[in-house]
Design brief:
It is a single chain. The chain is α/β, with parallel strands linked by helices. It has two domains: 179 residues, Response regulator (Rossmann fold); 131 residues, 3-Layer(aba) Sandwich (Rossmann fold), CATH 3.40.50. It has a six-stranded mixed sheet, sandwiched between helices. A four-stranded parallel sheet has the order 5-4-6-7, with helices on both faces. Helix 9 links the parallel strand 11 and strand 12. It is globular, with a radius of gyration of 22 Å.
Length: 373
């Protein structure tokens, strides 16, 4: 009898393990808390992961870390994980940045899976190549949540803003202020990332559809102030005058290069850096008609929140849509969507009230950018 009871218990444990060792179920919506976790579209499917008791071991696996956005994102993740209402669900929280090598990032994710982590938040180096680690995660009941640079797959839950739409919006805004001809400068981001690709494609497709006569000069600014400043300066030195600029990041560096080169101010569509918005506010009357869209570093907080909800067994959209915060020279307001007294490098958009995500600069800047081991 004792042997039979032991065998039955072992069989039950195997069944329990099998329940976890599977991809998330595709279920009917609506999902939980749709004011925060809004489905990307009417066609977005819904996932339900097997519920697991907390608190949880969660890791953030970042790739490239050499710009202000990534540093602020890591600090935001740490600040969010320390909030009392979040910390109660977290047993361990680790942060690792692996650089631009996809193999190194995949190896790190695999290590966390093997160490028994419950969820892994990922800012991916590449939109492809994750099939193996996704299978491994499913086999061990691990929730993987890519954000920002999302993956070209519907096999995992992801959180993002629409980067293709950002490129479209930037192009339409420039068309409004430059007309349909002239020389444009496009300052791209980190090569190989889905964000860079999607913004670029949205921008170019919109220009083409407008039927304008443009010469577009492309440079790679790595979404970093120093890099963008250097490549913009080089582009001005080689090409002379530009009639408009689309910069994916390091926008303040792009503008500073124009100032240093004594290039006349022209319309510039750029990212959500507070320094860029300060430049727009200061120089808009001189011709810097700027538009600033925001890929917020606070996406990481929504991704952590989504992972915890998934681990609770809540129904979640496969792709969570986060709204794009946009401001331009006509509606910048000091203390609301830019902060003139803040001199540190900082992205201005960090509040998503429907998700209970709102950070002050001191909360974020007080964190370190270093790995949490």
């Amino acid at each position: 009898m004792q042997l039979r009871a032991a065998a039955a218990a072992f069989a039950l444990s195997l069944l329990a393990g099998t329940a976890l060792a599977a991809p998330p179920k595709v279920v009917s919506g609506p999902g939980t808390n749709e004011t925060c976790f809004k489905p990307w579209s009417a066609q977005t499917k819904f996932f339900q992961f097997a519920a697991k008791p907390g608190p949880y071991k969660i890791a953030l696996v970042n790739g490239y870390v050499g710009n202000t956005w990534r540093i602020q994102m890591i600090k935001t993740a740490k600040a969010f994980a320390e909030l009392p209402e979040v910390k109660k669900d977290i047993k361990e929280f680790k942060v690792v940045s692996t650089g631009t090598d996809a193999a190194a990032q995949l190896g790190t994710i695999e290590d966390f899976i093997n160490q028994g982590y419950d969820a892994i938040i990922v800012n991916a180096v590449s939109p492809t190549g994750f099939d193996r680690v996704i299978r491994q995660a499913n086999a061990k009941g691990v929730v993987i949540v890519p954000f920002d640079n999302q993956l070209d797959t519907e096999a995992v839950m992801q959180v993002n803003e629409d980067n293709h739409a950002m490129g479209v919006d930037a192009a339409n805004w420039l068309l409004k202020y430059t007309g349909k001809k002239g020389n444009l400068l496009e300052v791209r981001g980190v090569p190989g990332n889905s964000v860079d690709r999607d913004r670029h494609e949205g921008f170019r497709e919109t220009l083409k559809a407008a039927g304008g006569d443009f010469k577009v000069t492309e440079v790679v600014g790595m979404w970093a102030t120093g890099d963008s400043q250097k490549v913009t300066a080089d582009a001005i030195a080689v090409n002379g005058h530009f009639d408009g600029v689309f910069t994916q990041g390091g926008s303040d560096g792009t503008v500073q290069a124009m100032i240093d080169a004594k290039h006349p101010f022209v319309p510039v569509a750029g990212e959500g850096e507070n320094a860029f918005r300060k430049q727009i506010a200061e120089h808009s009357a001189e011709g810097l008609k700027g538009m600033s869209y925001g890929q917020s570093p606070a996406l990481v907080a929504i991704s952590i929140k989504a992972a915890i909800a998934a681990l609770h067994g809540d129904v979640m959209p496969q792709l969570v849509s986060v709204p794009i915060p946009i401001a331009d020279f006509t509606d910048l307001k000091a203390g609301v969507n830019y902060f003139p007294d803040l001199n540190e490098q900082f992205f201005a958009d960090n509040a998503f009230p429907p998700c209970g995500v709102a950070f002050t600069a001191p909360q974020i800047m007080g964190q370190s950018k270093e790995n949490v081991q």
